[in-house]
Specification:
This protein has 591 residues and is α/β, with parallel strands linked by helices. Helices cover 39% and strands 12% of the residues. It has 23 helices and twelve strands. An eight-stranded mixed β-sheet has the order 5-6-10-9-8-7-11-12. The chain has a four-stranded parallel β-sheet with strand order 2-1-3-4, sandwiched between helices. The chain is globular. It starts with 12 loop residues before the first helix and ends in a 13-residue tail after the last helix.
């Protein structure tokens, strides 16, 4: 094969250059590849398309636009697929054990495909919870020119057929003094319904508050089409942070799945990857310490999902950056919470409103004085993007002198119950719950806790403790959306706290403390808690304390024995044997 005159050496030359690579070229020709294409940069497109995840069903269109952009800019595109788990469909049963572990499968799969086939550049088409961080981990690992396209949020729905019934329900709750549920029912009657509201609908149906017909109306309205779920859940939080990290084009994080703008971004990303390959700009040059600090600031300003405290450290680890979870707390003290998006308490706005208000460039503009210089895949420095951003709705994105909260949306708690830290979405905690003292009600699984909540066995003033649900003990660190949503649905979110060594969905609200480390399966103090023990939580002082004398805890520790593994075959056994603490991002390591 003759090389084009004056062509620069490519990474892919190792599989296509020289007489000895004739067998390799034969296989490439076998795919239908043309002779002229052999001289083009080989661009891998890792796509997580499938037809079971709403956030991914529209990716076939975006694949076409990415491919067109790649070829227009002089590249050759090669697509390969990746697994994509829908956390919502996996929720509340065996499937959720696989969600977080799938992050490692995705990263390993991308690494394997890219290294085995010596691609020159990489486009990562992603959208939902663990898929986006897994792809970013892979980009940092292989460290070839890469760009991310997140497929975009879903539109919010409306409950038009039952607006009158929901208004009546709001009045009923108001008369009962249940202002939290009154506000939710009123919002559903007159504004957005999003995915997480289906959990409230389920709880109301079980209580007889709504009919079966109303339940069906709400569940069909909650997800009206393709895209990632409409609130600031993990998928959308990670899409926003990918843009803030500099790994996707401006506007990509919030552009709606159904929009023409998203197709244009996909096309432009396909073009831009060739520019990145030509310049030699690599993920580790983009994802620096400064970039991660910028991403954390945006996370805190938005009040994003607490799962970012798992994912950003894991991505940073593969990028060779040390990112201790204390950064979240340190930056939270100086980063106001300026955008209050659903599902946070009192929120009215969804992702579509954030996009119309100017998206991540507008958020960066508000934070511009604290944004650090960092390169991006667009070719612009992030500070330049921040300067150019414009806020188009000052209620959706408030100025620094009128924030929703003076501090950021995530806090790191510590104390004798969480020596290595615990995480809370502080922006989702009602003011009267920011300090709490209550008696422990202990459960060794999510299922046991859920059964107790549904059976009305949880009372005001109690702290629900769900343990042996950490990365190793779960295994897989399942999300506790069912328990938190049911607590809220029963009107207890301002009277009951929940702590766990598991984690929470971005949909969780209330005094919900997750990632308690060390976890119970490692002999952490959460495994020593007994029913009736007093637990104190102070969000503002960042404290999580078990009010049991040290001597008694030492006695309990001496008598503690690790339980038998819940799962004894398959991938999860390997995962549990190598996964690290949540405080380290739950990365898989042989150490």
């Amino acid at each position: 094969m003759a090389l084009e005159k004056g062509r620069k050496a490519m990474r892919s030359d190792v599989v296509k250059k020289g007489p000895e690579r004739a067998p390799h070229r034969a296989l490439l020709y076998g795919t239908g590849m043309g002779h002229r294409e052999m001289n083009r940069p080989f661009i891998a497109v890792a796509t997580a398309w499938n037809d079971i995840v709403p956030g991914h069903v529209g990716m076939r269109d975006l694949e076409r636009y990415i491919e067109r952009g790649i070829y227009a800019a002089g590249g050759a595109a090669f697509f390969f697929g990746l697994p994509g788990i829908c956390d919502g469909i996996a929720m509340g049963h065996m499937g959720m054990h696989y969600s977080l572990p799938s992050r490692e499968l995705i990263a390993d799969s991308v690494e394997s495909m890219v290294q085995a086939h010596a691609f020159d550049g990489l486009v990562l088409l992603t959208n939902c919870d663990k898929i986006t961080p897994g792809m970013l981990m892979a980009a940092a690992r292989v460290n070839i020119s890469s760009i991310v396209v997140t497929a975009g949020p879903m539109l919010a729905g409306r409950c038009t057929p039952i607006e009158g019934k929901l208004s009546a329900l709001a009045l009923e709750f108001q008369k009962q003094g249940d202002l939290g549920r009154a506000a939710t029912a009123s919002r559903l009657a007159h504004g957005h319904i999003i995915y997480g509201d289906a959990y409230y609908a389920a709880a109301w149906r079980k209580e007889g508050k709504i009919s079966q017909s109303a339940l069906e109306t709400m569940e069909q309205a909650a997800c009206p089409g393709m895209g990632s779920c409409q609130g600031l859940y993990t998928a959308n939080t990670m899409a926003c942070l990918t843009e803030a990290l500099g790994m996707s084009l401006p506007g990509c994080g919030t552009a709606l799945a159904i929009s023409a703008a998203k197709k244009r971004i996909a096309y432009e990303s396909g073009e831009q990857i060739l520019s990145l390959v030509k310049k030699g700009l690599l993920p580790r040059q983009i994802m620096s310490k400064a970039a991660f600090r910028n991403a954390i600031r945006v996370d805190l300003a938005l009040g994003g999902s607490t799962n970012t405290v798992l994912h950003l450290p894991a991505i940073a680890h593969d990028a060779g950056v040390d990112l201790p979870i204390r950064w979240f707390d340190e930056l939270s003290r100086s980063t106001p919470h300026v955008s209050n998006l659903l599902p946070s308490i009192g929120a009215l706005h969804a992702m579509e409103d954030l996009d119309r208000a100017g998206g991540i460039p507008a958020v960066l503009h508000v934070l511009r004085d604290s944004v650090e210089s960092s390169p991006t895949v667009s070719g612009k420095d992030l500070r330049s993007i921040a300067r150019a951003g414009r806020v188009l709705n000052r209620e959706v994105i408030r100025p620094l002198d009128r924030p929703y909260h003076e501090e950021g949306g995530i806090a790191i708690l510590s104390g004798n119950l969480a020596r290595d830290g615990a995480v809370i979405k502080s922006s989702a905690v009602a003011e009267e719950m920011r300090t709490f003292r209550g008696k422990a009600k202990v459960f060794d699984s999510e299922e046991a806790a859920t059964e107790a909540i549904l059976g009305d066995k949880i009372s005001a003033g109690e702290v629900v403790v769900i343990r042996y649900e950490g990365p190793r003990g779960g295994p897989g660190m399942r999300e506790m959306l069912y328990p938190t949503a049911l607590i809220t649905g029963k009107g207890l979110s301002r009277e009951v706290a929940l702590i766990t060594d598991g984690r929470f969905s971005g949909a969780s609200i209330g005094l919900s403390v997750g990632h308690v480390s060390p976890e119970a399966a490692e002999g952490g103090p959460i495994g020593l808690v007994k029913n009736g023990d007093i637990i104190e939580i102070d969000v503002d002082k960042r404290r999580l304390e078990l009010k049991v004398p040290a001597a008694e805890l030492a006695r309990r520790k001496k008598n503690w024995k690790p339980p038998q593994p819940k799962i004894k075959t398959g991938y999860l056994v390997r995962y549990a044997s190598t996964v690290s603490s949540a405080a380290k991002g739950a990365i898989v390591s042989p150490e």
